[in-house]
């Protein structure tokens, strides 16, 4: 069975571990930044035989190096959003077909057939730059739906189009734009899931998820706010159907590490730095130490609780420095 087929057919912990170890040993040899990081950490990948012993690569390396082990030139290079003066991350994607399979399968795992929905994208800052993997995903899903579309700040048109649409709807918006819509119109939405992603991007005050979701639920007349968790460095996405509790697709796992010691894992319920294993990252690096903070729970769910500060990244800086 090909690795791609193994990834999307995973149905048990044992199958996940077997696929992860197979991919780890290949990327430990073929992905140069990851290989060098493991070497500097004193890790011989051939001696790693259990999932728990795989060490994740600092996500910062996507800004500094070509994190790639594809057999052919990348079909697409996705980039992260960044503020002035910052270097964006670059995710070199060997196969857009694989990306499409990953985000479609993940979406349908949580929300059912794409075709039953209309998807409305309120993603102004993503639409206004090149290389957004989120825009690529939402555009592809909208085309599969056959209804919905992208909107910048045309809030009146957005609401009119949604009101005239008889299908169940998903309004997927960057957080600050949803807040603007809620504040300016406070529209009571029908047959609609409101899904936020992407944060405030420095446009508005940062609030706790609880505070922010309360503002949106009251303005939109919905019971709860859904969320999408993804990033340019990942091929896959996790989803929350409320209360900021995320679940990942079957080929993606989240664990916690100590902020000062990347080799030390933390138990369920602790607060720590988020590590992600995304097995759909077949041509880059599937084992990523992110800069997000959060908690994980016994059922595999997790929450995001802010970002590492510059002073807290000490444990990840070995190769970056």
Features:
seven-stranded mixed sheet, six-stranded mixed sheet, 321 residues, Rossmann fold, 2 domains, 15 strands, Luciferase, domain 3, alpha/beta, single chain, disordered C terminus
Describe the model.
It is built from 10 helices and 15 strands. Helices cover 32% and strands 23% of the residues. β8 (226-229) and β9 form a beta hairpin. It is of the alpha/beta class and 321 residues long. The N and C termini lie far apart (40 Å). α2 packs across α3 (32-40). The protein is globular. The strands form 3 sheets. A 7-stranded mixed sheet has the order 5-4-6-7-8-9-10, sandwiched between helices. Strands 1, 11, 12, 13, 14 and 15 form a 6-stranded mixed sheet that branches. A two-stranded antiparallel sheet has the order 2-3.
CATH topology of the largest domain: Rossmann fold
Strand content: 15-25%
CATH class of the largest domain, named Alpha Beta
Task: Find the structural class using helix and strand composition.
Answer: alpha/beta
| CATH homolog superfamily of the largest domain | ANL, N-terminal domain
Rg, alpha carbons: 20 Å
What is the residue-averaged pLDDT?
A: 91
- What's the number of structural domains? 2
Helix content: 25-40%
Poorly predicted regions: 311-321
Task: Summarize the topology.
Elements: H1 3-8, H2 13-30, H3 32-40, E1 57-58, H4 61-64, E2 76-79, E3 90-93, H5 96-111, E4 118-122, H6 124-127, H7 133-145, E5 148-151, H8 155-164, E6 169-174, H9 175-185, E7 192-197, H10 209-220, E8 226-229, E9 238-240, E10 246-247, E11 252-258, E12 261-265, E13 272-278, E14 287-296, E15 302-307
Parallel strand pairs: 1-14, 4-5, 4-6, 6-7, 7-8
Antiparallel strand pairs: 2-3, 8-9, 9-10, 11-12, 11-13, 13-14, 14-15
